[in-house]
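We modelled each protein-ligand pair independently. The example shown here corresponds to the pyridoxal-5'-phosphate entry; the chain sequence is given first, followed by the ligand as SMILES.
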Amino acid sequence: MSASDKPLNLRPATRLVHGGTLRSQFGETSEALFLTQGFVYDSAEAAEARFKGTEPGFIYARFGNPTVAMFEQRMALLEGAEAARATASGMAAVTAALMGLLRAGDHIVAARALFGSCLYVVEEWLPRFGVASTLVDGTDLDQWRAAMRPNTKVCFLESPTNPQLEILDVAAIAEIAHAGGARLVVDNVFATPLLQQPLALGADVVVYSATKHIDGQGRCLGGVILSSQKMIDENFHNPLRQTGPALSPFNAWVMLKGLETLPVRVAQQGASAARLADVLAGLPGVARVLYPFRKDHPQHDLARRQMAGGGTVIALDLEGGKPAAFRFANALRVVKISNNLGDAKSLITHPATTTHQRLSPEAREKGGIGEGMLRLSVGLEDVEDLIDDVTQAAQAARA
Ligand SMILES: *Cc1c(COP(=O)(O)O)cnc(C)c1O
Protein backbone atom coordinates (compact mmCIF):
# COMPACT_ATOMS: atom_id res chain seq x y z
CA MET A 1 0.00 0.00 0.00
CA SER A 2 1.31 3.43 -0.84
CA ALA A 3 0.38 7.05 -0.39
CA SER A 4 -0.28 7.94 -4.02
CA ASP A 5 -0.68 11.64 -3.44
CA LYS A 6 2.39 13.57 -2.40
CA PRO A 7 1.41 17.09 -1.35
CA LEU A 8 2.33 18.77 -4.61
CA ASN A 9 1.16 22.35 -4.82
CA LEU A 10 -2.34 21.22 -5.52
CA ARG A 11 -5.33 23.46 -4.98
CA PRO A 12 -7.91 22.50 -2.35
CA ALA A 13 -10.50 20.97 -4.70
CA THR A 14 -7.84 18.66 -6.19
CA ARG A 15 -6.53 17.68 -2.78
CA LEU A 16 -10.05 16.82 -1.70
CA VAL A 17 -10.39 14.33 -4.54
CA HIS A 18 -6.94 12.73 -4.37
CA GLY A 19 -5.27 13.73 -1.11
CA GLY A 20 -4.22 11.03 1.34
CA THR A 21 -5.36 8.11 -0.81
CA LEU A 22 -3.80 4.81 0.29
CA ARG A 23 -4.26 2.29 -2.55
CA SER A 24 -4.19 -1.40 -1.78
CA GLN A 25 -2.54 -4.02 -3.99
CA PHE A 26 -5.80 -4.17 -6.02
CA GLY A 27 -5.44 -0.62 -7.34
CA GLU A 28 -9.03 0.35 -6.57
CA THR A 29 -10.20 3.72 -7.92
CA SER A 30 -12.35 4.65 -4.98
CA GLU A 31 -10.93 4.67 -1.46
CA ALA A 32 -11.23 1.27 0.21
CA LEU A 33 -13.25 0.74 3.34
CA PHE A 34 -11.07 -1.22 5.77
CA LEU A 35 -13.71 -2.46 8.15
CA THR A 36 -11.28 -4.17 10.47
CA GLN A 37 -10.50 -3.85 14.16
CA GLY A 38 -7.09 -5.43 14.01
CA PHE A 39 -4.14 -6.32 11.79
CA VAL A 40 -2.06 -9.47 11.40
CA TYR A 41 1.73 -9.64 11.41
CA ASP A 42 4.06 -11.74 9.30
CA SER A 43 5.95 -12.89 12.38
CA ALA A 44 6.22 -12.46 16.12
CA GLU A 45 9.26 -10.28 15.44
CA ALA A 46 7.19 -8.03 13.19
CA ALA A 47 4.54 -7.70 15.92
CA GLU A 48 7.22 -6.77 18.41
CA ALA A 49 8.68 -4.15 16.06
CA ARG A 50 5.24 -2.71 15.34
CA PHE A 51 4.52 -2.30 19.05
CA LYS A 52 7.97 -0.85 19.71
CA GLY A 53 7.33 1.67 16.98
CA THR A 54 10.50 0.73 15.10
CA GLU A 55 8.41 -0.46 12.13
CA PRO A 56 5.50 1.56 10.77
CA GLY A 57 2.06 0.02 10.44
CA PHE A 58 -1.33 -0.37 12.02
CA ILE A 59 -1.89 -2.22 15.29
CA TYR A 60 -5.47 -1.77 16.42
CA ALA A 61 -8.34 0.36 15.16
CA ARG A 62 -8.54 2.43 18.34
CA PHE A 63 -4.99 3.61 17.47
CA GLY A 64 -5.43 3.92 13.73
CA ASN A 65 -6.98 2.36 10.64
CA PRO A 66 -6.13 2.86 6.94
CA THR A 67 -9.52 4.37 6.04
CA VAL A 68 -9.41 6.67 9.04
CA ALA A 69 -5.81 7.57 8.17
CA MET A 70 -6.88 8.56 4.65
CA PHE A 71 -9.53 10.86 6.10
CA GLU A 72 -7.03 12.39 8.54
CA GLN A 73 -4.46 12.94 5.82
CA ARG A 74 -6.98 14.50 3.45
CA MET A 75 -8.20 16.84 6.21
CA ALA A 76 -4.62 17.85 7.09
CA LEU A 77 -3.89 18.65 3.43
CA LEU A 78 -7.06 20.71 3.17
CA GLU A 79 -6.43 22.63 6.38
CA GLY A 80 -2.73 23.13 5.75
CA ALA A 81 -2.07 21.40 9.09
CA GLU A 82 0.89 19.12 9.79
CA ALA A 83 -1.30 16.48 11.35
CA ALA A 84 -4.87 15.45 12.12
CA ARG A 85 -6.63 13.00 14.41
CA ALA A 86 -10.15 11.85 13.66
CA THR A 87 -12.71 11.31 16.41
CA ALA A 88 -16.13 9.70 16.74
CA SER A 89 -17.99 13.03 16.83
CA GLY A 90 -17.39 16.75 16.87
CA MET A 91 -17.85 16.79 20.63
CA ALA A 92 -15.24 14.06 21.04
CA ALA A 93 -12.85 16.32 19.10
CA VAL A 94 -13.65 19.37 21.22
CA THR A 95 -13.43 17.46 24.50
CA ALA A 96 -10.17 15.72 23.58
CA ALA A 97 -8.63 18.94 22.30
CA LEU A 98 -9.46 20.88 25.47
CA MET A 99 -8.66 18.08 27.92
CA GLY A 100 -5.43 17.34 26.08
CA LEU A 101 -4.24 20.90 26.58
CA LEU A 102 -5.51 21.49 30.13
CA ARG A 103 -4.54 20.19 33.58
CA ALA A 104 -6.03 20.67 37.04
CA GLY A 105 -5.22 24.20 38.17
CA ASP A 106 -5.38 25.65 34.67
CA HIS A 107 -7.86 28.22 33.38
CA ILE A 108 -9.71 28.49 30.07
CA VAL A 109 -11.25 31.60 28.50
CA ALA A 110 -14.02 30.97 25.98
CA ALA A 111 -16.42 33.06 23.97
CA ARG A 112 -19.91 32.78 25.49
CA ALA A 113 -21.51 32.13 22.09
CA LEU A 114 -20.67 28.44 21.87
CA PHE A 115 -22.42 25.36 20.55
CA GLY A 116 -24.55 24.07 23.46
CA SER A 117 -22.48 20.97 24.21
CA CYS A 118 -19.22 22.95 23.99
CA LEU A 119 -20.63 25.29 26.60
CA TYR A 120 -21.36 22.27 28.80
CA VAL A 121 -17.76 21.05 28.47
CA VAL A 122 -16.34 24.48 29.34
CA GLU A 123 -18.79 25.43 32.09
CA GLU A 124 -19.57 22.10 33.75
CA TRP A 125 -17.24 19.31 32.63
CA LEU A 126 -13.77 20.90 32.82
CA PRO A 127 -14.41 22.42 36.28
CA ARG A 128 -14.95 18.86 37.61
CA PHE A 129 -11.30 18.24 36.82
CA GLY A 130 -10.09 21.45 38.45
CA VAL A 131 -10.05 23.67 35.35
CA ALA A 132 -11.59 27.10 35.97
CA SER A 133 -13.38 28.84 33.13
CA THR A 134 -14.34 32.38 32.19
CA LEU A 135 -16.86 33.22 29.47
CA VAL A 136 -16.54 36.47 27.56
CA ASP A 137 -18.38 38.34 24.83
CA GLY A 138 -16.19 37.06 22.02
CA THR A 139 -16.53 40.18 19.89
CA ASP A 140 -15.09 42.38 22.67
CA LEU A 141 -11.28 42.07 22.64
CA ASP A 142 -11.00 43.97 25.93
CA GLN A 143 -13.01 41.23 27.63
CA TRP A 144 -10.57 38.61 26.31
CA ARG A 145 -7.63 40.65 27.61
CA ALA A 146 -9.26 41.20 31.00
CA ALA A 147 -10.12 37.53 31.40
CA MET A 148 -6.55 36.28 30.95
CA ARG A 149 -4.91 34.95 34.14
CA PRO A 150 -1.37 33.70 34.75
CA ASN A 151 -2.72 30.11 34.59
CA THR A 152 -4.80 30.60 31.42
CA LYS A 153 -3.69 27.83 29.08
CA VAL A 154 -6.43 27.81 26.46
CA CYS A 155 -8.64 30.32 24.66
CA PHE A 156 -11.55 28.75 22.80
CA LEU A 157 -13.97 30.16 20.26
CA GLU A 158 -16.28 29.51 17.34
CA SER A 159 -16.67 31.90 14.43
CA PRO A 160 -19.21 32.42 12.97
CA THR A 161 -21.04 31.65 16.20
CA ASN A 162 -24.12 29.53 16.61
CA PRO A 163 -26.79 30.73 16.08
CA GLN A 164 -26.20 34.51 16.02
CA LEU A 165 -23.44 34.27 13.37
CA GLU A 166 -21.22 36.76 15.16
CA ILE A 167 -17.75 37.00 13.69
CA LEU A 168 -14.85 36.86 16.12
CA ASP A 169 -11.43 38.25 15.24
CA VAL A 170 -9.35 35.06 15.20
CA ALA A 171 -6.00 36.79 14.54
CA ALA A 172 -6.48 39.35 17.32
CA ILE A 173 -7.63 36.73 19.83
CA ALA A 174 -4.69 34.48 18.88
CA GLU A 175 -2.38 37.37 19.72
CA ILE A 176 -4.03 37.91 23.09
CA ALA A 177 -3.84 34.19 23.84
CA HIS A 178 -0.18 33.92 22.88
CA ALA A 179 0.79 37.06 24.79
CA GLY A 180 -0.61 35.33 27.87
CA GLY A 181 1.11 32.01 27.18
CA ALA A 182 -2.13 30.28 26.12
CA ARG A 183 -3.13 28.31 23.04
CA LEU A 184 -6.05 29.23 20.82
CA VAL A 185 -8.46 26.44 19.85
CA VAL A 186 -10.99 27.28 17.11
CA ASP A 187 -14.16 25.33 16.39
CA ASN A 188 -14.40 26.05 12.66
CA VAL A 189 -17.60 24.17 11.85
CA PHE A 190 -19.73 27.06 10.64
CA ALA A 191 -17.04 28.47 8.33
CA THR A 192 -15.94 25.09 6.95
CA PRO A 193 -12.25 24.54 6.11
CA LEU A 194 -12.83 26.17 2.73
CA LEU A 195 -14.01 29.59 3.91
CA GLN A 196 -11.72 30.18 6.89
CA GLN A 197 -8.25 28.92 7.84
CA PRO A 198 -7.78 29.49 11.58
CA LEU A 199 -4.23 28.07 11.62
CA ALA A 200 -3.13 30.69 9.09
CA LEU A 201 -4.79 33.33 11.28
CA GLY A 202 -2.70 32.24 14.28
CA ALA A 203 -4.80 29.54 15.96
CA ASP A 204 -2.93 26.53 17.37
CA VAL A 205 -5.64 23.91 17.08
CA VAL A 206 -8.68 23.62 14.81
CA VAL A 207 -11.56 21.27 15.53
CA TYR A 208 -14.49 20.19 13.38
CA SER A 209 -17.68 18.33 13.71
CA ALA A 210 -17.37 16.39 10.45
CA THR A 211 -21.03 15.55 11.01
CA LYS A 212 -21.89 18.85 9.38
CA HIS A 213 -20.58 20.00 5.98
CA ILE A 214 -17.85 17.37 5.71
CA ASP A 215 -20.35 14.51 5.59
CA GLY A 216 -22.79 16.99 4.13
CA GLN A 217 -25.58 14.53 3.57
CA GLY A 218 -26.75 13.92 7.11
CA ARG A 219 -25.47 10.37 7.59
CA CYS A 220 -22.64 9.89 10.08
CA LEU A 221 -21.14 11.50 13.15
CA GLY A 222 -17.47 12.37 13.08
CA GLY A 223 -14.91 14.88 14.23
CA VAL A 224 -11.33 15.90 13.67
CA ILE A 225 -8.53 17.74 15.50
CA LEU A 226 -5.85 19.51 13.44
CA SER A 227 -2.61 21.12 14.60
CA SER A 228 1.15 20.89 14.35
CA GLN A 229 2.69 17.41 14.60
CA LYS A 230 4.38 18.45 17.84
CA MET A 231 1.13 19.52 19.44
CA ILE A 232 -0.55 16.26 18.40
CA ASP A 233 2.37 14.21 19.73
CA GLU A 234 2.55 16.06 23.04
CA ASN A 235 -1.09 16.63 23.81
CA PHE A 236 -3.46 14.42 21.82
CA HIS A 237 -1.80 11.26 20.53
CA ASN A 238 -1.71 9.18 23.71
CA PRO A 239 -4.91 10.49 25.32
CA LEU A 240 -6.83 9.66 22.13
CA ARG A 241 -5.33 6.16 21.89
CA GLN A 242 -5.92 5.33 25.52
CA THR A 243 -9.34 6.92 26.10
CA GLY A 244 -10.82 5.66 22.82
CA PRO A 245 -13.03 8.23 21.05
CA ALA A 246 -11.98 6.62 17.73
CA LEU A 247 -13.85 7.29 14.49
CA SER A 248 -15.41 4.18 12.96
CA PRO A 249 -13.77 3.20 9.64
CA PHE A 250 -17.18 3.17 8.01
CA ASN A 251 -17.88 6.74 9.12
CA ALA A 252 -14.38 7.77 8.05
CA TRP A 253 -15.09 6.36 4.60
CA VAL A 254 -18.34 8.33 4.36
CA MET A 255 -16.49 11.51 5.41
CA LEU A 256 -13.68 10.81 2.96
CA LYS A 257 -16.15 10.59 0.10
CA GLY A 258 -17.91 13.68 1.46
CA LEU A 259 -14.67 15.65 1.19
CA GLU A 260 -14.55 15.01 -2.56
CA THR A 261 -17.68 17.09 -3.09
CA LEU A 262 -17.19 19.59 -0.26
CA PRO A 263 -16.08 22.53 -2.45
CA VAL A 264 -19.00 22.11 -4.85
CA ARG A 265 -21.52 21.82 -2.05
CA VAL A 266 -20.18 24.69 0.06
CA ALA A 267 -20.02 26.98 -2.99
CA GLN A 268 -23.57 26.13 -4.07
CA GLN A 269 -25.06 26.26 -0.56
CA GLY A 270 -23.20 29.51 0.17
CA ALA A 271 -24.48 31.14 -3.03
CA SER A 272 -28.02 30.07 -2.20
CA ALA A 273 -27.64 31.31 1.39
CA ALA A 274 -26.44 34.74 0.22
CA ARG A 275 -29.40 35.00 -2.16
CA LEU A 276 -31.92 33.77 0.42
CA ALA A 277 -30.57 36.18 3.06
CA ASP A 278 -31.32 39.10 0.75
CA VAL A 279 -34.78 37.76 -0.08
CA LEU A 280 -35.59 37.19 3.60
CA ALA A 281 -34.45 40.70 4.52
CA GLY A 282 -37.05 42.12 2.16
CA LEU A 283 -39.99 40.05 3.43
CA PRO A 284 -42.65 41.65 5.64
CA GLY A 285 -42.54 40.37 9.23
CA VAL A 286 -38.80 39.65 9.10
CA ALA A 287 -37.29 42.08 11.60
CA ARG A 288 -33.65 41.24 10.95
CA VAL A 289 -31.46 38.93 8.92
CA LEU A 290 -27.96 37.99 10.02
CA TYR A 291 -25.60 36.77 7.31
CA PRO A 292 -21.86 37.48 7.57
CA PHE A 293 -21.42 38.81 4.02
CA ARG A 294 -24.42 41.16 4.11
CA LYS A 295 -23.49 44.82 4.54
CA ASP A 296 -25.79 45.18 7.55
CA HIS A 297 -24.03 42.42 9.50
CA PRO A 298 -22.41 43.98 12.62
CA GLN A 299 -18.98 42.47 11.80
CA HIS A 300 -19.29 42.63 8.03
CA ASP A 301 -15.81 44.08 7.42
CA LEU A 302 -14.14 41.53 9.64
CA ALA A 303 -16.11 38.73 7.96
CA ARG A 304 -14.88 39.89 4.54
CA ARG A 305 -11.31 40.01 5.83
CA GLN A 306 -11.33 36.71 7.62
CA MET A 307 -13.56 34.54 5.44
CA ALA A 308 -13.64 33.62 1.77
CA GLY A 309 -17.44 33.43 1.76
CA GLY A 310 -20.42 34.14 3.99
CA GLY A 311 -21.18 30.48 4.73
CA THR A 312 -24.23 28.31 4.41
CA VAL A 313 -26.20 29.40 7.49
CA ILE A 314 -28.54 32.36 8.00
CA ALA A 315 -30.13 33.66 11.21
CA LEU A 316 -33.36 35.63 11.08
CA ASP A 317 -35.52 37.39 13.65
CA LEU A 318 -39.24 37.44 13.14
CA GLU A 319 -41.57 40.12 14.46
CA GLY A 320 -44.01 38.50 16.84
CA GLY A 321 -41.58 36.32 18.81
CA LYS A 322 -42.02 32.61 19.34
CA PRO A 323 -45.56 32.30 17.91
CA ALA A 324 -44.48 33.92 14.65
CA ALA A 325 -41.27 31.84 14.50
CA PHE A 326 -43.24 28.64 15.05
CA ARG A 327 -45.82 29.62 12.40
CA PHE A 328 -42.96 30.31 9.96
CA ALA A 329 -41.25 26.98 10.64
CA ASN A 330 -44.50 25.02 10.53
CA ALA A 331 -45.50 26.58 7.21
CA LEU A 332 -42.31 25.54 5.42
CA ARG A 333 -42.80 22.76 2.88
CA VAL A 334 -39.32 22.23 1.41
CA VAL A 335 -37.19 23.28 4.38
CA LYS A 336 -37.35 20.71 7.19
CA ILE A 337 -37.42 21.40 10.92
CA SER A 338 -34.22 19.94 12.37
CA ASN A 339 -31.41 21.03 14.68
CA ASN A 340 -28.69 19.79 12.31
CA LEU A 341 -26.83 21.92 9.77
CA GLY A 342 -24.51 21.65 6.80
CA ASP A 343 -26.83 19.08 5.20
CA ALA A 344 -27.87 18.82 1.54
CA LYS A 345 -31.38 19.34 2.88
CA SER A 346 -32.27 22.84 4.05
CA LEU A 347 -33.00 22.74 7.78
CA ILE A 348 -34.51 25.26 10.14
CA THR A 349 -34.33 25.37 13.91
CA HIS A 350 -35.72 27.57 16.68
CA PRO A 351 -32.65 27.84 18.95
CA ALA A 352 -34.48 29.27 21.99
CA THR A 353 -36.61 26.13 22.39
CA THR A 354 -34.16 23.50 21.08
CA THR A 355 -30.37 23.83 20.87
CA HIS A 356 -30.23 26.69 23.38
CA GLN A 357 -33.16 25.63 25.57
CA ARG A 358 -30.76 24.75 28.40
CA LEU A 359 -29.71 28.40 28.76
CA SER A 360 -31.61 30.67 31.13
CA PRO A 361 -33.77 33.34 29.47
CA GLU A 362 -31.25 35.93 30.71
CA ALA A 363 -28.34 34.05 29.16
CA ARG A 364 -30.20 33.79 25.86
CA GLU A 365 -31.03 37.48 25.99
CA LYS A 366 -27.37 38.28 26.71
CA GLY A 367 -26.35 36.06 23.80
CA GLY A 368 -28.79 37.73 21.43
CA ILE A 369 -30.89 34.58 20.98
CA GLY A 370 -34.41 35.98 20.85
CA GLU A 371 -37.72 34.15 20.94
CA GLY A 372 -38.30 35.14 17.33
CA MET A 373 -34.93 33.90 16.07
CA LEU A 374 -34.64 31.06 13.58
CA ARG A 375 -31.48 29.49 12.20
CA LEU A 376 -31.64 28.34 8.61
CA SER A 377 -29.03 25.97 7.20
CA VAL A 378 -29.26 26.23 3.44
CA GLY A 379 -29.05 23.03 1.43
CA LEU A 380 -28.69 21.98 -2.17
CA GLU A 381 -32.28 22.41 -3.35
CA ASP A 382 -32.98 24.77 -6.27
CA VAL A 383 -32.74 28.21 -4.71
CA GLU A 384 -35.96 29.31 -6.46
CA ASP A 385 -37.88 26.62 -4.55
CA LEU A 386 -36.30 27.81 -1.31
CA ILE A 387 -37.25 31.40 -2.11
CA ASP A 388 -40.85 30.36 -2.79
CA ASP A 389 -40.89 28.37 0.43
CA VAL A 390 -39.64 31.12 2.76
CA THR A 391 -41.84 33.69 1.02
CA GLN A 392 -45.02 31.74 1.68
CA ALA A 393 -43.83 30.90 5.22
CA ALA A 394 -43.27 34.57 5.99
CA GLN A 395 -46.82 35.25 4.85
CA ALA A 396 -48.14 32.44 7.04
CA ALA A 397 -46.14 33.77 10.01
CA ARG A 398 -48.06 37.06 9.85
CA ALA A 399 -51.46 35.42 9.85
C1 LIG B 1 -22.39 20.13 15.68
C2 LIG B 1 -21.36 20.97 16.30
C3 LIG B 1 -20.51 20.44 17.29
C4 LIG B 1 -20.63 19.02 17.80
O1 LIG B 1 -20.48 18.07 16.81
P1 LIG B 1 -21.09 16.59 16.90
O2 LIG B 1 -20.56 15.93 15.69
O3 LIG B 1 -22.57 16.73 16.92
O4 LIG B 1 -20.60 15.99 18.16
C5 LIG B 1 -19.55 21.28 17.82
N1 LIG B 1 -19.43 22.56 17.42
C6 LIG B 1 -20.25 23.10 16.49
C7 LIG B 1 -20.06 24.52 16.10
C8 LIG B 1 -21.23 22.32 15.90
O5 LIG B 1 -22.03 22.86 14.97
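The chain has 14 helices and 14 strands.
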